[in-house]
Amino acid sequence: MKTPFRKLALASMLAFTIPAQSVLACTAITLNANDGSIIQARTQEWGAFDLRSEIIKVPQNVVMKGNTPDGANGLTWESKYGAVGINAVGLPVFIDGMNQEGLAVSVLYMPGFAQFQDYDSQQSDITLAAYDLPAWLLTTKANVEEIKTELPNVRVSDVKVPSFGNIAPPIHFLVSDSKGGSIVIEYTNGELAIYDNEVGVMTNSPSYPWHLTNLRNYVGLQPESVEAKQVGNITLSPIGVGSGMLGLPGDFTPPSRFVRAVAMRNTVVELEDSERAINESFRILDNFNIPLGATEAPDQLPTDGTQGSTQWTTAMNAHSLEYYYHTMNNRTLRKIDLNEIDFTKGEITFYPLDKNKAQTIEMVEVD
């Protein structure tokens, strides 16, 4: 890559701003299939502007540097594994991605709760900015056990960026691997926390343990319809199917989406193979798509046509090393096969998500 990683990241981040009130409503899930397929999938909502996301490819043997609050050189590393994913606004960073070992990382917002480690200039050589962390994980780690062992040895700091209101992006991370491991990585109160993701879901604020506690309010949910009940002299029976899920929250807040995603992900039918698992991951995430304007007040609508909607959705198969996605402009499913990529040469490169920002339509001939 001709432009240094650090300089390009900072220059690009200065090119946009985020309003105080933005829709940051990402939802992520994991799914497994009987053929060994392990899927991590997510939606990407962003209410402030068009993220102008691209496909990013990082090959092996690329020297990369982390950012620090005082601008000193942070942690320097060389990419061991090649990775493919999706970036934003021209940055050489990953919002979502998978490496050639099947490690998958998804970045979601956690405003009001994410607080990274205090910066120590004497430890700048082991320091990363939060937005550097996905690239470091994807290019140096093969599975979640390596992350559990090695992540405590680096420092992840609140690197302030003027275009983010002079704050650090408040983010947390869902990670899964080809062995079936799945973790949530969060930094709160300046401390690292790594949680085993036992329910296979992550959304936004508050922190992951809070969402698990909140699930206790919905222990009565079940996929089976409830039985008719006698009330006084009349018998009340459910109106239609789905009564077992009566009370499932349907709004777009992070707590409601977490409950809804847990209910759908953990009642899914047995999935025979990767095709079923990929299709079902997108079907589940269709329940979290935000229509244009559904979550924005009239005076907060952006002018570029995004209006808080789901800008893209991805699904990564750690077993087959296949990366799938569709966008708000074109819901035709597209696939990147990491097995077909030569990661041993080249530099960091970018490719458009949509060749044309228009829905592909297949004509059906009817005689």
Please describe what this structure looks like:
The protein is an alpha+beta fold and 367 residues long. The protein has one domain (5-352): 4-Layer Sandwich (Penicillin V Acylase, Chain A). Helix content is 15%, strand content 25%. The protein has helices at residues 5-13, 133-140, 144-150, 208-214, 254-265, 274-285, and strands at 28-32, 38-45, 54-58, 63-65, 76-78, 83-86, 96-99, 104-109, 127-129, 155-157, 171-176, 182-188, 191-196, 201-202, 229-231, 234-236, 310-317, 322-327, 334-337, 349-352. The protein has an eight-stranded antiparallel sheet with strand order 13-12-11-8-7-6-3-20, covered by helices on one side. A six-stranded antiparallel sheet has the order 14-1-2-17-18-19. The longest helix is centred in the C-terminal third of the chain and has 12 residues, at 254-265. The radius of gyration is 21 Å and the shape is globular.
Summarize the structure.
Helices cover 15% and strands 25% of the residues.
